[in-house]
Design brief:
Strand content: over 45%
Distance between the termini: 24 Å
Shape: elongated
Length: 399
């Protein structure tokens, strides 16, 4: 069974991963070239590290291919961003290489029990640095260790030559280490590798979000119109409550900064009220439809464990719609209405500038749940909040 998991299939993650368990020790087989690949076991984590070749990178940079498998049944935390990578020139000069992570997406994450994954990360040296002949990786902070003894946590690899190089651009570079073909699906999976098929600088983090929200507002001051009625001021309805289903799309365009659009649709009950008593009486009652819509710009404050707080400013408006009865102008009706009232749909608009805050909870590499809340800065009595469910094209580790 093909276990390679496309990014768009995140919702089926648990089902697809059930029959694809990692076999302990599968990553520890003798490598084809021990000078470029080293394997270690850090408690529950089997870890293979390869210094890969990429003709597009300067020789002072390093492309490190991490492959890992959880030999235990309990999840283990992996933090590839914590690895310390040092390059050594021919004269012995050491330079600490910097992880290339322009989108600030490489974070710690949980690898579920008996699952595996891989990631290829690029590390760069300052301009003018000599070519690397050897690269050393400190593994100690990638995964916490409970045992005091064990294999050395610092591994050194020789820069690959033309004959021994692992070419990241060859098909099958993202190879499996278990009986499954391709990567096995798991709560922590990195695929595809950095290289020709995926450019970390060219692919922004995209997010599709669905929310169920509640709104409270006072529509006083909104002017509505519809049918033969024009400039009908809304007053006397009091504070209205509404529930909406929301759809949002956003993209992280500059590191933690994101922009996007939003459309909400729903409504709530309204008490009967006379909106205008002259020259023709207009009254309303029943459901008030609410449809907030607009765009937002925000910033994520990064992951704090499994949580990711963010703040944004929403700019747009709230579309209001309600049915109203208009009298025909007769003088014999009570409350200013005749018995021959006609119903029309009134439409109104209220501009919004709403600062908001949110906290998302990561359920897996591509799924989050969260809560949010905000207030309309132009109308302080208008409050909103709710719960959200989001699918991310790239997960918290950078894909």
């Amino acid at each position: 069974m093909l276990c390679r998991l496309a990014l768009a299939s995140s919702l089926l993650l648990a089902l697809l991963s059930a029959g694809c368990a990692y076999q302990p020790g599968a990553l520890l087989a003798a490598p084809a070239d021990p000078s470029t690949t080293v394997a270690r076991t850090l408690d529950c984590l089997d870890l293979s590290v390869t210094l890969a070749a990429d003709e597009h990178l300067p020789a002072s940079s390093a492309l490190v291919d991490y492959r890992f498998g959880n030999r235990c049944k309990a999840p283990v935390t992996i933090d590839l961003a914590a690895a310390v990578v040092t390059g050594y020139a021919a004269d012995g000069t050491a330079t600490v290489l910097k992880l290339k992570d322009g989108q600030h997406q490489v974070h710690a994450g949980d690898l579920d029990g008996e699952h595996d994954g891989s990631e290829a990360l690029r590390y760069d040296a300052p301009k003018g640095t000599a070519d690397n002949v050897r690269v050393c990786v400190e593994l100690g902070r990638i995964a916490p260790r409970k045992s005091a003894n064990g294999a050395p946590q610092r591994v050194c690899l020789t820069a690959p030559g033309d004959d021994s190089a692992v070419d990241v651009h060859k098909p099958g570079f993202a190879r499996a280490h278990t009986a499954c073909e391709g990567h096995c699906a798991g709560p922590q999976m990195w695929s595809p590798p950095f290289g020709a098929t995926w450019d970390v600088d060219g692919l922004v983090r995209l997010r599709m979000e669905m929310r169920v929200s509640g709104h409270v507002m006072d529509p006083a001051g909104v002017t509505m119109a519809g049918g033969e009625m024009h400039d009908v001021p809304v007053g006397g309805l009091g504070r209205l409550g509404a529930a909406t289903f929301d759809l949002r799309y956003s993209a992280f365009v500059a590191g933690p900064i994101y922009v996007g659009g939003e459309l909400d649709l729903g409504g709530g009950p309204s008490s009967a009220s006379v909106l205008r008593s002259s020259p023709r009486a207009v009254s309303t009652g029943g459901t008030v439809v609410q449809a907030p819509m607009g765009g937002m710009v925000g910033v994520s404050f990064g992951r704090l464990g499994i949580f990711e707080p963010s703040a944004e400013v929403f700019v747009g408006g709230r579309l209001l719609a309600l049915d109203a009865d208009r009298g025909d102008g007769g003088a014999d009706a009570s409350d200013g209405l005749t018995s021959q009232a006609r119903t029309s749909r009134l439409i109104g608009w209220r501009t919004m500038i709403a600062p908001r805050g949110a906290i998302d909870f990561w359920l897996g590499p591509h799924l989050t749940m969260g809560v949010w809340g905000g207030v309309d800065a132009l109308h302080a009595t208008d409050l909103s909040g709710g719960i959200s469910f989001a699918v991310h094209l790239r997960s918290y580790d950078g894909h």
